[in-house]
Amino acid sequence: MSFDLVGRLRIVDAMTPTLRRVSSELDRTNLSVKKVAASTGSYRNAQNAATQSVNNFSGGLPNLLGKLKMLAGAVVAVGTAFDGI
Length: 85
Prior knowledge:
The chain is mainly α and about 80 residues long. It has one domain (about 1-60). Helix content is about 100%, strand content about 0%. The protein is built from one helix and no strands. It has one helix at about 1-85.
């Protein structure tokens, strides 16, 4: 019984450095994953902001087109008025 326990303790003792290295690598991998997740979140936020900006711009285009038509009508009216003078 004691021989079995001593053998198991030796196995565990021999594995300890390996387990520490694996644990350290897992910690580094976890940190890298967190950095990638943060970068991905920043990219998504920037992409959403750009999409919103494009949507705002394209939403204002019909309004801008209406104002340009009104301005063109005013220019034609002024030109017609000068022709009448």
